[in-house]
């Protein structure tokens, strides 16, 4: 009985340690554990010791719910998940919890909704306005829905959830079609969904910082150390290409492609 009861706790912990885990999983896993507690109250009604343990665990979980309410990022991550959106809250949360989550997400969205568009998106709009007569006529005959002035956040969260064709919601938001349809909301989504589900990986990076600040490098500024660790983590996760430099002071650019033969005298 105990092993069966604890299985969701084990799986939730392991999933949030995965490399693809993100903060949108936190409240979802807490909801799963909450349901496990509620079901256990019924199943174990004749086992006084188990019922007492379940109530104690439920109380601890409720404390974590209260802590998550202090930061709107947790609920916002759920709302920005393309397979969940507002429908998830409507089906699984109490009405008062729903409104608190929505209000917090709207406050966070207010910091992004007035931001100027990136130069690339602005240029694409100018190109459409300055199109040749043929292109203008062709665009006027298009049967596609034209972009509306509807609030991006409200439009997204109130739309029906749909299956992702990507592994994570962060990858989904990185796709070009999301950038074009939600030019400002996609930036908020990238900032929110880039937050890891657990702090174990950032803590490991922080611990490695000690090796970057040896006694003979004690004058490094905090920003320099932060930049070193950030770049090191990006390289470790293959987010940027390595730069190879010749030992004899001759700098050779080898970032052109995978078919480049690296000289034996180079180091990364």
TrEMBL record:
The GO terms this record gives for MF are: protein dimerization activity; zinc ion binding
One Pfam family this chain carries? Answer: Dimer_Tnp_hAT
CC per GO annotation? nucleus
Query: Where does the secretion signal sit in this chain?
Result: none
Question: Could you confirm whether the keyword Zinc-finger appears in this record?
Answer: yes
**Where does the source fall among the domains of life?**
Eukaryota
Q: Does the keyword Hydrolase apply?
A: no
**Which key words tag this protein in UniProt?**
Metal-binding, Nucleus, Zinc, Zinc-finger
Please report the stretch or stretches of sequence annotated as the HAT C-terminal dimerisation domain: 168-235
Transmembrane residue ranges: none
Q: Where in the cell is it found?
A: Nucleus
Return the InterPro entries for the record: HATC_C_dom, RNaseH-like_sf, ZnF_BED_domain_contain
Q: Main site of residence?
A: nucleus
Q: What is this protein called?
A: Transposase-like protein
What species is this protein from? Metarhizium guizhouense (strain ARSEF 977)
């Amino acid at each position: 009985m105990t092993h069966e009861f604890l299985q969701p706790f084990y799986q939730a912990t392991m999933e949030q340690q995965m490399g693809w885990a993100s903060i949108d999983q936190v409240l979802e896993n807490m909801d799963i554990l909450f349901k496990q507690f509620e079901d256990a109250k019924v199943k174990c009604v004749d086992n006084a010791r188990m019922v007492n343990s379940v109530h104690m665990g439920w109380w601890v979980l409720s404390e974590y719910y209260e802590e998550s309410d202090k930061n709107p990022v947790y609920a916002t991550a759920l709302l920005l998940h393309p397979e969940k959106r507002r429908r998830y809250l409507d089906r699984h949360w109490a009405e008062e919890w729903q409104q608190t989550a929505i209000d917090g997400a709207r406050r966070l969205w207010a910091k992004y909704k007035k931001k100027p568009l990136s130069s690339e998106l602005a240029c694409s709009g100018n190109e459409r306005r300055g199109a040749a007569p043929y292109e203008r006529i062709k665009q006027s005959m298009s049967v596609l829905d034209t972009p509306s002035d509807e609030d991006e956040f409200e439009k997204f969260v109130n739309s029906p959830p749909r299956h992702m064709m990507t592994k994570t919601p962060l990858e989904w938001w990185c796709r070009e079609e999301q950038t074009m349809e939600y030019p400002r909301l996609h930036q908020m989504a990238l900032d929110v969904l880039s937050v890891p589900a657990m702090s174990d990986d950032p803590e490991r990076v922080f611990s490695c910082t000690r090796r970057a600040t040896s006694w003979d490098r004690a004058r490094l500024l905090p920003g320099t150390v932060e930049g070193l660790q950030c770049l090191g983590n990006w390289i470790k996760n293959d987010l940027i290409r390595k730069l190879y430099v010749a030992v004899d002071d001759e700098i050779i650019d080898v970032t052109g492609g995978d078919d480049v033969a690296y000289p034996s005298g180079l180091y990364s």
